[in-house]
């Protein structure tokens, strides 16, 4: 097997399509080198095959030989040798997995320097300061990244030295100071590792390569892969590349650039650069950067060249690209490119505009495929609801959306506190990959340093997490921060707006965002793609939700839960009277009161959805949910005694108490025990439909019976509904009657059940609960997280439907149901209806509509388009 490929290797396919083998960075370096012929420093990629082999059995057999050969080829191309005491070749060692991944090993620069070669570098460049600055950077990086030492001691020494010699920037530190720093750094290494700092360049190189491979299995990388659903088996590639020097002099520099604004999608180049600096300086946000357009004045030729390259990249990748580049003594070098991450707003704007751009010309389907559910989610992110607040300070709006939470200064704290149900804003000077878990847990992120491409900004944008960065007025201390006279303590509530960059002390009221016009354009294209194949409905329990659902484009209601109406404060006493009724008359009277109330509720919903189907589920939850808490009443009884009414409630609550209420008297079972209940609900519903019809509206009612396990049950429940419809003379309303399939038995017996149903709706929450035997209400905490961590489950099955087990029951249910009734309509209601991966599973199973919460409807419309493509 071949392990190493030079960037200019002649591959059979376009290298950019070989990310599996070369990793993302390596694939694109090869693409830029051999296809686009851009100025890229020579180098080679050690493939992911080598990484997988390394992780399995250690340093791969044969890799040494290949490495030696690749290195001498590189040396030949460069006319320099690694570690040569005269004019040495230096290289960078860069990790690069298929998907870019925080937590992977950071890049080591200037590798190949030692006490001899540094002199060679100084002579060849005629610049002692530059050579020794590169050397001290190298030792610092190698010690932290490869040897795993805590960087703070060296960082502190460097800062102290800068202060002592009065250096404003890193480039102002004189040679002597650098030399003595290098001695101290090496002493630290020896003290901490009991070994000398490696001086042999080949040993340095192999050390760095092993460290990249090893970082694949680091905790941070693993955590990130879990969050993103990336397989642990991919492995990473390693790129070894000849160094170019942005820290050479003031005619040099380094930067990051985007072909369009990744935050807004606005056309025009965007990015940051730093004069006389090396790469990580920009990304880490340790020094304040200049905007890319400032290049125009300082380096006019480079600027023009860069603009041209950006255009070529966009035409070639047919998308917005981000780049990393370095200028060495006036010459431009491209060090990285990839299709860039972007905010939801930007993604939408770019996708729509790129259908117009001559050099890209996306078609509508491609544009729709560019948008993810997360993008839409971000656009629907909350914003500050009013402008009635005082701004404490302002930073850069780095990732849109507003967030409110308690100030929290460490990633560790953030994770703990969120586990305890708190909402936090993570406040840091700057973030590093160590903070990733805290950032994930937090509502939002606030940093005091760094620009729009700092770590905090990039990671937060990728996740759609609100972030404000570079709020320089904030001085962070251990457990508090200060802005001028104001001190904000750990645990105090703040609000941040990741669009405007505002930071506010206290909680600002938040509101949902306004969708942009591109949002509607993309969704209308998505609708064209999916409409005839997969419909999207919403779950809505009242007129208000139904109106929101219609606004977001729902094509009907897939689930109206009638119990939510019963739980309203003014209805609860009536429900209780019905349960407590001693006589039939009492029960009938209570039911009659409920009927009137329900009729008005139904009318509101049907009106909001006139012309569209509305599926109403008859009462589902265990009745004890409507009764007061037994324990609470018993305590009261002991302390102060109960009223007569309360005594009766206690008695009822006791008698309805069940050990396993979720497997108890609920759904159609309730109807069986209290037959008047379902008849009453149907009566209310039919009357509401008749009223709407009389008003000139167009009610389309579907009555749904929950928790059925067999055909006999459904036949019985159906007869009550049918009797009422007949009695009210509502045949012309074409009301259909169907059932939920939410027990495994119902899926298995779907064929006979279908003979009594015009439609099925899969209630995948309960179906998941009962298929796994996982209690929905208890499984989420400890148990689920262990299962996910240990890889016993790939996803939480309550979020992403289990395609193999539950999915199989859905497929079987549909097949068996349709074998009895070929035109059986089939939908899905429940949380899974708004989840992209689940929507795909459902579509493939033959479902004709999904139903989800009103705010998820846009995401479901998009995902449905993706699923049918
Ligand atoms: P990341 O994946 O974190 O972006 P990179 O491998 O891209 O890491 O390296 C970070 C930075 O290091 C680059 O943006 C670039 O500025 C600098 N760098 C990497 N390789 C070289 C090189 N061969 N010459 C000069 N600078 C380099
Ligand atoms: Mg990195
Ligand atoms: Mg990079």
TrEMBL record:
Domain Pyruvate phosphate dikinase AMP/ATP-binding: 20-57, 63-297, 304-354
Domain PEP-utilising enzyme mobile: 422-501
Positions contributing to Mg(2+) binding: 742, 766
A single MF term (Gene Ontology): ATP binding
Family annotation (Pfam families): PEP-utilizers, PEP-utilizers_C, PPDK_N
Entry EC no(s): 2.7.9.1
Keywords: ATP-binding, Kinase, Magnesium, Metal-binding, Nucleotide-binding, Pyruvate, Transferase
Domain annotation PEP-utilising enzyme C-terminal: ranges: 520-867
InterPro entries, sorted: ATP_grasp_subdomain_1, PEP-util_enz_mobile_dom, PEP_util_C, PEP_util_CS, Phosphohistidine_dom_sf, PPDK_AMP/ATP-bd, Pyruvate_phosphate_dikinase, Pyrv/PenolPyrv_kinase-like_dom
PROSITE patterns with a match to the protein in the record: PEP_ENZYMES_2
Top-level taxon: Bacteria
Cofactor: Mg(2+)
Binding annotation for substrate: 561, 617, 742, 763-766
Catalytic center residues: 455, 829
Keyword Membrane part of the UniProt annotation: no
UniProt family annotation: Belongs to the PEP-utilizing enzyme family.
Name of the protein this chain belongs to: Pyruvate, phosphate dikinase
Gene source species: Ferrithrix thermotolerans DSM 19514
């Amino acid at each position: 097997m071949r392990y190493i490929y030079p960037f200019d290797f002649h591959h059979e396919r376009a290298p950019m399509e070989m990310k599996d083998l070369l990793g993302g960075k390596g694939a694109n370096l090869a693409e830029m080198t051999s296809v686009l012929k851009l100025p890229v420093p020579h180098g080679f990629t050690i493939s992911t095959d080598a990484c997988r082999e390394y992780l399995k059995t250690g340093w791969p057999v044969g890799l040494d030989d290949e490495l030696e050969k690749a290195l001498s080829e590189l040396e030949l191309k460069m006319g320099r040798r690694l570690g040569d005491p005269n004019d040495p070749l230096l290289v960078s060692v860069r990790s690069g997995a298929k998907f870019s991944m925080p937590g992977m090993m950071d890049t080591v620069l200037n590798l190949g320097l030692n006490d001899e070669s540094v002199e060679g570098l100084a002579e060849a460049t005629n610049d002692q300061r530059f050579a020794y600055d590169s050397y001290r950077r190298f030792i610092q990086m190698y010690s932290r990244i490869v040897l795993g030492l805590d960087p703070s001691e060296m960082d502190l020494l460097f800062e102290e030295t800068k202060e002592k010699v009065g250096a404003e920037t890193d480039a102002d530190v004189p040679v002597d100071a650098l030399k003595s720093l290098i001695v101290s750094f090496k002493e630290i290494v020896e003290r901490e590792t009991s070994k000398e700092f490696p001086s042999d360049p080949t040993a340095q190189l192999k050390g760095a390569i092993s460290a990249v491979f090893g970082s694949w299995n680091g905790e941070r990388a693993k955590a990130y892969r879990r969050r993103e659903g990336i397989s642990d088996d991919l492995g990473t590639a390693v790129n070894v590349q000849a160094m170019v020097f942005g820290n050479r002099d003031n005619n040099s520099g380094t930067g990051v650039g985007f072909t369009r604004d990744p935050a807004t999608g606005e056309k025009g180049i965007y990015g940051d650069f730093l004069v006389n600096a090396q790469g990580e300086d920009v990304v880490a946000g340790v020094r304040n950067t200049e905007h890319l357009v400032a290049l125009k004045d300082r380096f006019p030729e480079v600027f023009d060249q860069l603009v041209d390259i950006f255009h070529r990249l966009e035409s070639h990748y047919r998308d917005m690209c981000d780049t990393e580049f370095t200028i060495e003594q006036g010459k431009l070098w491209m060090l990285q490119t990839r299709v860039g991450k972007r905010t939801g707003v930007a993604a939408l704007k770019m996708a729509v505009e790129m259908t117009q751009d001559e050099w890209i010309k996306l078609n509508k389907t491609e544009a729709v495929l560019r948008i993810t559910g997360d993008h839409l989610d971000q656009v629907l992110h909350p914003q500050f609801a009013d402008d009635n607040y005082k701004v404490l300070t302002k930073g850069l709006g780095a990732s849109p959306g507003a967030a409110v939470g308690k100030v929290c200064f460490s990633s560790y704290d953030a994770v703990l506190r969120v586990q305890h149900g708190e909402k936090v804003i993570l406040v840091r000077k700057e973030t590093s990959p160590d903070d990733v878990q805290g950032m994930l847990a937090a509502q939002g992120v606030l940093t005091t340093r760094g620009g729009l491409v700092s770590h905090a900004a990039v990671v937060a944008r990728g996740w759609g997490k609100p972030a404000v960065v570079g709020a320089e007025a904030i001085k962070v201390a251990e457990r508090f921060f200060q802005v001028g006279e104001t001190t904000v303590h750990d645990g105090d509530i703040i609000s941040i707006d990741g669009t405007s960059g505002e930071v506010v002390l206290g909680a600002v009221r938040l509101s949902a965002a306004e969708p942009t016009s591109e949002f509607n354009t993309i969704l209308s294209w998505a609708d064209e793609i999916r409409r005839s194949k997969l419909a999207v409905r919403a779950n809505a329990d009242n007129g208000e939700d139904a109106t929101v659902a219609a606004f977001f484009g729902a094509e009907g209601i897939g689930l109206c839960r009638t119990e939510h109406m019963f739980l309203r404060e003014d209805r609860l006493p009536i429900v209780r009277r019905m349960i407590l009724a001693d006589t039939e008359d009492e029960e009938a009277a209570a039911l009659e009161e409920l009927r009137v109330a329900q009729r008005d509720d139904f009318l509101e919903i049907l009106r909001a959805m006139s012309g569209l189907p509305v599926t109403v589920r008859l009462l589902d939850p265990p009745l004890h949910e409507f009764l007061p808490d037994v324990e609470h009443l018993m305590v009261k009884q002991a302390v102060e005694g109960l009223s007569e009414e309360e005594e009766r409630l206690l008695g009822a609550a006791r008698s309805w108490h069940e050990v396993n209420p979720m497997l108890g008297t609920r759904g159609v079972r309730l109807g069986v025990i209290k037959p008047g209940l379902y008849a009453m609900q149907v009566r209310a519903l039919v009357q509401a439909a008749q009223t709407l019809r009389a008003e000139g509206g167009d009610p389309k009612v579907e009555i749904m019976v929950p928790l059925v396990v067999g055909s006999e049950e459904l036949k019985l429940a159906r007869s009550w509904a049918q009797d009422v419809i007949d009695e009210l003379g509502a045949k012309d309303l074409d009301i259909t009657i169907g059932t939920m399939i939410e027990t495994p038995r119902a899926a298995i017996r779907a064929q006979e059940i279908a003979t009594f149903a015009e439609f099925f709706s899969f209630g995948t929450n309960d179906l998941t609960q009962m298929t796994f035997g996982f209690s929905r209400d208890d499984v989420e905490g400890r148990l689920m997280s262990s299962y996910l961590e240990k890889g016993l489950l790939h996803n939480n099955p309550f979020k992403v439907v289990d395609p193999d087990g539950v999915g199989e029951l859905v497929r079987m249910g549909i097949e068996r149901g349709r074998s009895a009734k070929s035109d059986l309509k089939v939908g899905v209601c429940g949380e899974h209806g708004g989840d992209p991966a689940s929507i795909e599973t459902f579509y493939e199973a033959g479902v004709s509509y999904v139903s989800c919460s009103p705010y998820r409807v846009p995401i479901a419309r998009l995902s449905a388009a993706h699923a049918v493509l």
